[in-house]
Write a structure and sequence with these properties.
The complex is a heterodimer of chains A (385) and B (392). By secondary structure, chain A is of the alpha/beta class. Chain A has helices at residues 15-26, 37-57, 70-84, 100-111, 129-135, 158-168, 189-192, 241-254, 258-277, 306-315, 336-340, 345-348, 362-381, and strands at 3-4, 64-67, 91-95, 115-119, 140-146, 173-177, 196-200, 211-215, 282-284, 296-301, 318-319, 321-322, 351-355. In chain A, helix 10 packs across helix 13. The mean pLDDT of chain B is 92. In chain B, a hairpin with a 2-residue loop joins strand 2 (41-46) and strand 3. The radius of gyration of chain B is 27 Å and the shape is elongated. The longest helix of chain B is centred in the C-terminal third of the chain and has 19 residues, at 262-280. Chain B has 2 domains: 4-169, VC0802-like, CATH 3.30.2130.30; 181-391, Rossmann fold. The chains are: A alpha/beta (385), B alpha/beta (392). The interface between A and B is medium-sized, with 18 and 19 residues.
């Protein structure tokens, strides 16, 4: 049996996505910038994809810009947003549990003279509105938080933050890294007060190397990539028509039968948390039910090295992720997210993430729990000491 | 401008009846090395010299790089090849050569002509004098020095005429295949690829064995070893890599023997397994990357305890090297970057905090008796389930 439980790393592509990608590569392969018929034909795919995405967010298609994926969207939102507003101030607020695609650009901005405040997270990876209210000041120009934490499935108080900023500090840009949330939540940026939203295609059964940034029409942001002036000069580079078309289909599909899919994921999650929670000496780092994301469960296995467990599971056809890579002689940095939530030292290197998709079945999870039950005692018997 | 290369090789040890074996092996290795280079090449032997002719477009730097990895080559001379169309044409070609290679550099030179084709109207001495004169006329800033010239310009008159003056150093050593075969114990570290390289340099063909311990060591660790074997194979020629699943043996030792002896006993079993495959494949010895005192398992006592189980000679070419000296070679041969990727190998996964550093062979042998019940069966399984990968 095979159980792919690493859907937060990437997902399998939908067949309908594949079909449109192939079609735009082999038949309608024109360059939208060309003036002839083939160009116009390709342009239609872009427009269509933009419309499909805009509809899922209830925004204007003019506010959707295709990128090469989550990392580019995050980089652009932060660097482009900060640079465009630097005259208004130099202070940025984010959380201590962000993905590297947010942390690294912010560190770059710190080198450029910006000041960044990192909000602390609780045991489950959540920051509080109160801390944000205390951190915000006259100099603040940008707030960036994730919607769902990629390692833990924690839900950040996006709606509260958005409302607060909208009422008290409407000039502050609010960027949300929605890479793990899009497709799992109905996200309406206008209602939530989100100015910039990053999304990645391959997390929602779309092609790798695709993504978009939603940019509120009133938000001031500078382009990062300069060149031929595609996408109204905001993101130059020959349009990735196959990628955009595939992303459009994936986005539309993600919100088709949305309630059923969500219920399916939640059912899987509660089953898995309950059954895996019964195993001896495990610690659940994700919140149950609606309190956390429906597709991510983080579990620490006391006395077992995550990497070894990962390979032992792999041997049985079960694919998971260890938030941290750590080896005996070379100490690599363990996950800063797990450290941030105050996980005890012995659990930092003993934690696996299981993440589901709509393709995941309860049988796969039962098989995984059974495999864990067999492997844990064996792995605990042989340890380094 | 260069269309051919003259290959210079060491003369020591190849005199007499073995000479042709040496040359044939060298030509075979040259052909193999050039297979990965874009272009068509013809490798030939003519009157006791080896030539490489380029028969199509080729990248000069790529060819030199490939030839510099062929053991046995002492020097590579890029040659200009021309036909016999009279002395005037030859003079023009030589002047053009000097201009392109040395331009207006101030230097001393000497013409060294050889006339293998005796029908050529000028003698070697005459060619030397006449060409020397023309060069002096054309490049007034150059001087002749017949004793210690900066540039020794060779002009060889054979079926074609060859002009060359540069000698690019080769790696030296002996052509792989002229000195039997040995089994390298290849880990993912810095030392063992260097050890394999050094033995291959003496003309020894290399096979390798790697101990894989899933799930404790990852697929990436295995891939890293395959990558290292590939890098060594650029010098040694293709390597048969035996991947042995060592997990069960390791866990059994863990269970039955004192923990601080685990590494030594493990290494003794690795040696036994390596020797098994060595004998099976016609190898004449084992190669390890051990260096005295580098880690607990490489003290003199530990080396003796490990060596105790071997009946074949064990070659340890880096035994007297400091770590930095080994690192320097690994950087030179291009294995360092791969070696330092941080994947755990099977020697470290259960390592004790304080492993024995001065193991007593008798005590170790006694500890191994605890394994009697199942070890033969586990060894059998390990040998039977070996995966052999052909690494080019």
């Amino acid at each position: 049996m095979e159980a792919y439980l690493d859907n937060s790393a990437t997902t399998r592509c939908l067949e309908s996505v594949r079909d449109v990608v192939v079609k735009t590569m082999m038949e309608d392969y024109g360059n939208p910038s060309s003036r002839h018929r083939k160009g116009l034909e390709a342009e239609r795919y872009l427009r269509d994809a933009r419309e499909k995405i805009a509809r899922t967010l209830k925004v204007s298609e003019k506010e959707i810009f295709f990128t090469s994926g989550g990392t580019e969207s995050d980089n652009w939102a932060l660097i482009g947003g900060a640079m465009a507003n630097r005259r208004a101030g130099n202070h940025i607020i984010t959380t201590a549990v962000e993905h590297a695609a947010v942390i690294q650009p912010l560190m770059y901005l710190e080198e450029q003279g910006f000041r960044v405040t990192y909000l602390a997270a609780d045991r489950y990876g959540r920051v509080s509105l109160k801390d944000l209210q205390e951190a915000v000041c006259e100099d603040t120009i940008l707030v960036s938080t994730m919607y769902v934490n990629n390692e833990l499935g924690a839900l950040e108080p996006v709606e509260e933050i958005g409302r607060f900023l909208n009422e008290k500090y409407p000039r502050i840009l609010y960027h949300v890294d929605g890479i793990q949330a899009y497709g799992k939540y109905r996200i309406f940026p206008k209602k939530l007060g989100i100015d910039l939203l990053s999304v990645s295609g391959h997390k929602i059964h779309g092609p790798k190397g695709t993504g978009f940034l939603y940019v509120n029409e009133k938000a001031k942001i500078r382009p990062l990539l300069l060149g031929g002036g595609q996408q109204r000069g905001m993101r130059s580079g020959t349009d990735n028509v196959p990628g955009a078309a595939g992303l459009g289909v994936a986005a539309q599909e993600a919100y088709r039968d949305f309630e059923e899919k969500r219920a399916h994921l939640l059912k899987l999650k509660s089953y898995f948390m309950e059954e895996a929670g019964k195993l001896p000496d495990v610690v659940l780092n994700s919140l149950p039910g609606e309190e956390g994301a429906p597709h991510i469960v983080s579990i620490s296995f006391r006395g077992v090295r995550a990497e070894v467990l990962l390979h032992a599971l792999e041997d049985k056809g079960i694919y998971t992720s260890s938030g941290s890579a750590c080896s005996s002689n070379k100490k690599l940095p363990v996950s800063s997210v797990l450290k941030e939530i105050g996980l005890p030292k012995d659990l930092l290197d003993a934690t696996l993430r299981f993440s589901f998709s709509t393709f995941t079945t309860e049988e796969e999870l039962a098989y995984t729990v059974k495999a864990l039950g067999e492997l844990l005692p064996v792995l605990r018997k042989y340890t380094r000491h | 401008m260069f269309k051919a290369f003259l290959i210079k090789y060491g003369e020591i040890g190849i005199k007499g009846k073995n000479r042709h074996l040496f040359e044939d092996a060298l030509m075979k290795q040259i052909r193999h090395a050039l297979r990965s280079v874009e272009g068509k090449f013809y490798v030939r032997k003519e009157q006791g010299r080896i030539f490489v002719d380029a028969e199509s477009f080729f990248d000069y730097d790529e060819v030199i790089e490939a030839l510099q990895r062929v053991f046995g080559i002492v020097g590579i001379c890029p040659m200009v090849q021309t036909e016999d169309e009279g002395f005037e044409r030859l003079t023009a070609t030589v002047l053009d050569y000097m201009k392109k290679v040395y331009g207006d550099k101030e230097l001393t030179f000497k013409v060294d002509a050889r006339r293998a084709k005796k029908s050529y109207p000028l003698t070697s001495m005459e060619i030397n004098c006449d060409l020397g004169e023309k060069i002096l006329e054309a490049f007034p800033h150059m001087r002749v020095d017949v004793h210690h010239p900066d540039v020794l310009l060779s002009v060889e008159v054979r079926e074609h005429i060859y002009i060359y003056s540069q000698i690019i150093p080769g790696p030296g050593g002996m052509p792989v295949g002229t000195n039997g075969k040995a089994m390298l114990l290849l880990s993912g570290g810095i030392d063992s690829p260097v050890a394999g390289y050094m033995i291959a340099k003496r003309g020894v063909k290399i096979d390798a064995v790697y101990f894989h311990a899933p799930p404790y060591t990852s697929e990436q660790a295995k891939q890293k070893v395959i990558d290292l074997a590939h890098l060594v194979a650029r010098y040694s020629g293709p390597i048969n890599l035996h991947v042995v699943n060592f997990t069960d043996i390791q866990l059994y030792i863990y269970e039955k023997c004192p923990h601080e002896e685990l590494t030594i006993i493990m290494r003794r079993y690795m040696m036994r397994i390596a020797e098994h495959f060595a004998k099976e494949t016609g190898c004449l010895g084992l190669i390890t990357g051990e260096s005295i005192g580098q880690v607990a398992s490489q003290t003199m006592q530990s080396l003796a305890a490990t060596n105790d189980v071997c009946t074949m000679p064990v070659f340890r070419p880096v035994i007297g090297f400091d770590k930095q000296e080994i690192v320097d070679i690994s950087e030179k041969i291009g294995t360092y970057e791969t070696s330092i990727q941080p994947f755990e190998d099977c020697c470290t996964i259960f390592v004790a905090k304080h492993p024995v550093t001065k193991p007593n062979i008798n005590i170790i042998r006694r500890s191994e008796t605890h394994l009697e019940e199942k070890i033969d069966e586990l060894m059998k399984t390990a040998l039977e389930t070996v995966e052999t990968i052909w690494v080019v």
